[in-house]
Amino acid sequence: MTRITQGSFSLLPDLTDEQIKKQIEYCIKNGYAVGIEWTDDPHPRNSFWELWGLPLFEIPDAATILYEIAEARKAHPNVYIKVNAFNNARGIESTALSFIIQRPPYEPGFYLVRQESSGRSIAYTIQSYAVQSAGEGSRY
Amino acid sequence: MSDASERTRIKSERYESGVIPYKKMGYWDADYTIKDTDVLCLFRLTPQPGVDPIEAAAAVAGESSTATWTVVWTDLLTACDVYRAKAYYVEEVPNKDDEFFAFIAYEIDLFEEASIANLTASIIGNVFGFKAVKALRLEDMRLPFAYLKGFLGPAAGVIVERERLDVFGRPLMGATVKPKLGLSGKNYGRVVYEGLKGGLDFLKDDENINSQPFMRWRERFLYVIEGINKAAAKTGAVKGSYMNVTAATMEEMYERAEFAKQLGSVIIMVDLIIGYTAIQSICYWGRKNDMIVHLHRAGHSTYTRQKTHGINFRVICKWMRMAGVDHIHAGTVVGKLEGDPNTVKGFYDTLLLPYLKENRTIGLFFDMDWASLRKCLPVASGGIHCGQMHQLTYLLGEDVVLQFGGGTIGHPDGIQAGATANRVALESMVLAKNEGRDYLKNGPDILKAAAKDCRPLQVALDLWKAITFDYASTDTLDFEATPTKQTS
Q1: Predicted confidence (pLDDT) per residue in B215-245, tens digit
Q2: Gap between the Cα atoms of B36 and B15, Å rounded
Q3: Domain ranges of chain B
Q4: I need a surface site. Which of A123, B60, B232, B405 has the fewest CB within 10 A?
């Protein structure tokens, strides 16, 4: 059992709904668009989790986003879900905040495949127990 | 009867052989109109007793551009009026009788495109040993847009690095492996693994770990990459460790960098002491090989610390952003190394902002547009610990690598516990900041609350609660909020 520590707050206890709401309000206050993404393949180099719709642009309050979070959780109860905030300011134009808001109850994590090659070099591959054990949609 | 050489002697008063004051040679022009394409420099000069500050300023302009000590007729074969640097403004330094700020403008064609080496060979070439000034310090520069466009700047910089590491909305976290010298490769890799597994994004080689008898570089790289990958698998997060490729020759540095790339490292590092050309070279290499380049500013305090002579570090920040390093150590304010808060803010702004506005209270003397050069990520390293997290968050902001060496490895319960303590302290502070809490005032309470769920943090707070480095800075600012009087 492991705990995936991607995102900004993953060493803290799982955020409560109240804490999530405050972070979303912070994003809205700063003019960020907020998007929800989910995956059952949280490999560290998996850059593209599935989009839960488009990021929400120009949303006046957190309620709309919290509603979508609730819907995403309902549809995908046992996988990873994260909130991403996008800042379109010149010179940034990238993600401004990203944190996990749901994880599976059991996280089997990853293992390291070491392919011994020439000399003492090793080619490393990080494999997911969950991904190698089941197909997409039934991993957790 | 006269011979030809006598008959052809130059009659103009300006070009008659001999020594005339620099200010009369054209190196002083109080009415000069600054061009958008000029390189501007601000020097702090301390003239020798009895030397007129304007003449000293003109001499600095002369010696850092076209002049030598005496008149030469070959000037007349050139468009010398253009190539002469012009001192155009001199003012007294506040509260100092013998120090002056001299502003000097340089024609852009004095400099080869995209070469820090050429720029510095002029600006800090001969002139710092010039006898007519007792001391000289390069305080700031305005590099023109047209000139900056020749430089590529950081290949990754803050934004791309965050995307590669998948870390957004909080400072990155690192630690330098300690002891910095003496560990074997395997023991060294252990420190990397433990720190990364505990929650850090990066470990780091120290500036003087290259390839010594106790641990040759290939051993280090092989065990470090094992530690990185093992920690990445344990945590499901992208991890890195700055592999120091600093070596005696460029060829050797490339060999080490190639090996780091072959192993799959995301980042390498070099020291400032390798020199400006080597730094630019390794940055080009990094760009070509998708490698983040970390710069350790080893050696800088020999010339940046004393107020009257040398180079202000903000100028080094500018040169290094131009050269293209992705990371540079830029001070902690609260740690063990030199750094006044406003001065350090000036360094961070220089590295991170797209456009600089003149603001003497943080040491910025010029407006300067960075011409879309990417942002260079400042690194705060040296004597910082988790008990200072509220101050670090307040002073250094979000775009910084917080680097806890002793503050990770010195944890009583081990390196992993030290790393976890730091990461939990940071995350709890960012969470509180975003929630709009007065985290600076309530920092200790926020940490105490976070420590309830995290024993390693509690242990660290108990151990280091009283550690501060409260010494006056040597390199301080001259301006608070008031403008200065004018002497010319």
Answers
A1: 999 999 999 999 999 999 999 999 999 999 9
A2: 30
A3: 23-148, 157-417
A4: A123
